[in-house]
Amino acid sequence: MAKHPQTIIDRLPSDFLWGVSTSAYQIEGAVAEDGRGPSIWDRRCKMKGGVGDGSNGDVSCDHYHRYREDIGLMKDIGVDAYRFSIAWPRLLPTGKGAVNEAGLDFYDRLIDSLLDAGITPWATLYHWDLPQGLDDLGGWTNRDCAGWFADYAVLAAKRYGDRVKHFATFNEFSVFTLFGYAIDWAAPGVTDRNAHLKAIHHVNLAHGAGVDVLRSLVPDVSIGAIHNRQKVLPEGGMPENQAAADLLDEHWNRAFPDPQILGHYPPQIARAIEPYVQAGDMARICRPIDWFGLNHYGPIFAKADPATTWGFGWGDTPSGGPDYGIGWRIFPEMFRDELITLTERYRLPVYITENGCGGDRDVPDARGQVIDPHRIKYLEVYHQAMCDAIAAGADVRGYFVWSLLDNFEWGSGYGQRFGLIYVDFPTQKRIPKESARWYRDLIRQARGG
Ligand code: FCB
Questions:
Q1: Of the listed 28, 354, 380, 409, which one is catalytic?
Q2: Helices (H), 392-428
Q3: Is 101 a catalytic residue?
Q4: CB of 372 closer than 6 A to ligand 1?
Q5: ∠438-379-118 over CA atoms, to 5°?
Q6: Which of 170, 409, 417 to mutate to test the pocket of ligand 1 (most atoms within 8 A of CB)?
Q7: Facing residues of 122 across strands?
Q8: For residue 400, is pLDDT > 90?
Q9: What SS3 class is residue 228?
Q10: Distance CA 370, CA 337 (A)
Q11: pLDDT digits over 401-414, tens only?
């Protein structure tokens, strides 16, 4: 058994929640089964250059059929909670109107099996798989999309709210809007300032409407929203990259939590978005929620790039410093600082809803085992940083590893393996990595076992 540092174990609250995260399109497969409609990611995967390795989520981990086995693996790790997302196009194949009973049934089976295994379901309503039928009507650039999302939320809340008490409205608002409507790193692949501004505002409205739906329909509900927040620094520390870093910081870190929790947009976005804001909108967006979900991987280095939609681009990470064999530099102190800043700024309990380590280094050895010391090191230093933040007053209540399984990593396809469990995609064989045992032992020891 891995012995975990007391500097982690002793500094965690006794009721700390341990979990793992996934999302529907990244693991389920079965994209044309039981009446599921196409999403914008099904379409993107078919476009030339849409996904780096030309792959798609058609089969992925085949979790749609293997969810029982996957729940067994979670049980072996000993997690308290499982964060998954509901695929909107499974419930409503064209996004609105006709309901797909077989799609609703899948999540009934998943939720019931989780509860039987003693694992608490945490459902995210939107993890990027917008029904293609809605994109055909303008998707998030259409103000009506907020209402379509609210109708979908009603369906999910009524069906699952008797058993699911933890809901997040969206996953990483700024990533899918920025990459999908300004940069073309994600579906639907638009690159237009006005489309992006509209998408930001309409997604914020959808969040507010979703919160109201969940609050009114789910007894004892606990509602959160999941934000990516990562410090944005100018590439090379250069003054000529500072303006780019400041604007990217507004887009990446503040365009969603600020209006949702503080009731206003950050200054540069506030000016640009004004044409799309109607009377009463800020009150519709700023609805009380119960927790802040933080997804964090590492800082971002920004550079001025006039060729892009907003004039900022992704700069290079400084070389040197520890990388623990991961292949990219890691900055756990930025995670600590983020947790402290976040607690002070938004004054909500925080759940770390994603953190983890990808890469292409995980391969079964001659004995068929997957030994991943780089991931263990990453998780260990990030846990230490989290404990430092807690000691400094950050209100962190739980931690979910991204991810349970190696899966379809959006624009990079299958090259990036983030799982605690290795998946051999041709055979669908699952092999718990060494890091899965590390996490299991951490949870046991944190519980005093
Ligand atoms: C996050 C996404 C998640 C996964 C991880 C690696 O941005 O929310 O789906 O792709 O990154």
A1: 354
A2: none
A3: no
A4: no
A5: 55
A6: 409
A7: 83, 166
A8: yes
A9: strand
A10: 32
A11: 999 999 999 999 99
